[in-house]
Amino acid sequence: MPIAGISEKEIQIPEGVTVTISDGLVTVKGPKVELTRILDHIRIDIKVAGDKVNLSCEYPRRAENALLGTFNAHIQNMIIGVTEGFEYKMKIVYSHFPVKVSVKGDIFVIDNFVGEKYPRKAKIIGDTKVVSKGDEVVLTGANKEHIGQTAANIEKATKIKGYDPRVFQDGIYITQKGGGASA
Description:
This protein is of the alpha+beta class. Helix content is 20%, strand content 42%.
């Protein structure tokens, strides 16, 4: 039964995953990958007790209660990332000029976009793996934020300015998001 004035969250740690916390640095280690993140707030207490992570805050204000939920979501995403990984699927859409994409190091290169002479480029963040198969681009990795930012960079790189987006729908768009990829 929750105690009045204390807000608490609890996360179950799956088998094969270890969570350590020291000075606000949360480290989640899985079978293949290790993720670290700073989750530090003076009023929020994060502890590992057995196979559970406990987050608590005494007499939280609205912002601290929201931050408690944010920390909870970050730790859960880290656990999913080290066990299953994340996968985003994107679709290449074009009407007249066939788009050619490639990966060069940590840069995603988009050639012949709407017939342009020079390629457009998007930065690949962190350890995100980008694979192109036909008109589909698949992004996989353990860190959800890195995958999401890489997908946003690719979408932004293919944004057409000065034209009606209902008519000129060329671009690369996210079609599917989810966990369950092999990281």
